[in-house]
Design goal:
The protein is of the alpha/beta class and 287 residues long. It folds into 3 domains: 7-116, Cobalt-precorrin-4 Transmethylase, domain 1, CATH 3.40.1010.10; 119-226, Methyltransferase, Cobalt-precorrin-4 Transmethylase, Domain 2, CATH 3.30.950; 241-286. It contains 11 helices and 10 strands. The strands form 2 sheets. It has a 5-stranded parallel sheet with strand order 3-2-4-1-5, with helices on both faces. A 5-stranded mixed sheet has the order 6-7-10-8-9. Helix 6 (143-152) links the parallel strand 6 and strand 7 (159-164). Helix 9 runs antiparallel to helix 10 (256-267). The protein binds S-adenosylmethionine. Residues 15-16, 85, 87-89, 92-94, 117-119, 163-165, 189-194, 221-223 line the site of S-adenosylmethionine.
Length: 287
């Protein structure tokens, strides 16, 4: 792997099942001059499993800028580098984006070595539309920020996907249920590729009940997928999700009274409905 300049290989590693790695990934990890890893101890175990001994350096979000500069120098010196994260595809809710940008900006080569990714694995088995989807990464950590996040996505018509930890899966679903209708389809994809892999497609209301009642459904790693909004708001007396979105945006800039008056003019919805929705939104912001 020698050239005038070295290349950066972005290598996907397993998300649970150690067999989920490509031959090319293993070859690359053997042949590069060094491996930049999020957690050096973690990657050592992985390398041991495949009988690879290679030089590892630390590359995590707290040293990313400095380490990226350092790696760029090494590539300029002709060394080849593999970037790996603790699990799955680097950059996807993992470190690496500033490094890849820096290397592209410098005109050097970045080579993807594709493989496991929890987002894609979950999408492939969820049974929700995948022609268009949005990936949201991890949800905000506070309840009020999560409710704003869900409110802003009320009318998104395509599937949306997020990562969640076992510590917050229940509160995330509880917050979602205060904003979205209970009949919205969601998929909880838990412990993918591992012994206790569970992929459940059901309504939001059922998912919340399941996660509340079954302790096991609050253990492990989670991807949550949510059906797009196309089929909601069937009741003509309800505001459409588009009308609620307009109101939400206006409420960020104006008083409730002004936001409601402007929303009436913009959307043509009934003032009484908009005013009630504004009070509900205000309440969720405070909880
Ligand atoms: N880069 C990784 C990828 O390609 O999927 C994601 C890294 S992110 C720091 C870790 C999060 O991904 C976990 O908290 C969880 O939400 C999700 N995740 C990773 N492995 C998973 C698995 N086996 N099953 C379900 N979710 C998983």
């Amino acid at each position: 792997m020698s050239n005038q300049y070295g290349k950066l290989y972005v290598v996907a590693t397993p998300i649970g099942n150690l067999a989920d790695i490509s031959f090319r990934a293993i070859e690359t990890l053997k042949q590069v001059d060094l491996i930049a890893a999020e957690d050096t101890r973690h990657v050592k175990l992985l390398l041991q499993h495949y009988g690879i001994s290679n030089k590892i350096i630390s590359f995590h979000q707290h040293n990313e800028d400095k380490a990226a500069e350092n790696l760029l120098e090494k590539l300029r010196d002709g060394l080849s580098v593999a970037l790996v994260s603790d699990a799955g595809t680097p950059l996807l809710s993992d470190p690496g984006m500033p490094l890849v940008r820096k290397i592209k900006d410098a005109g050097l080569t970045v080579v993807p070595i594709p493989g496991a990714c929890a987002l894609i694995a979950a999408l492939s088995a969820a049974g929700l539309p995948v022609t268009q989807f949005s990936f949201e990464g991890f949800l905000p950590r506070t309840s009020s920020a999560r409710k704003i996040f869900f409110t802003e996505r009320l009318s998104v018509p395509t599937t949306w996907v997020f990562y969640e930890s076992c510590h917050r899966i229940l509160v995330a679903l509880q917050d979602m249920a205060t904003i979205l209708q209970g009949d919205r389809q969601v998929v909880i994809a838990r412990e993918l590729t591992k012994m206790h892999e569970t992929i459940i497609k059901t309504t939001l209301a059922n998912a919340l009940e399941l996660v509340t009642q079954d302790d096991n459904m609050r253990k492990g790693e989670f991807v949550v997928l949510v059906e797009g909004a196309a089929k909601i708001n069937k009741n003509e007396e309800d505001l459409t999700s588009e009308q609620i979105k307009t109101l939400t945006i206006l409420m960020r800039e104006c008083t409730i009274k002004t936001a409601v008056e402007l929303a009436v003019q913009i959307t043509g919805a009934r003032k009484k409905l908009l005013y009630q929705a504004a009070l509900d939104l205000e309440k969720t912001k405070k909880t």
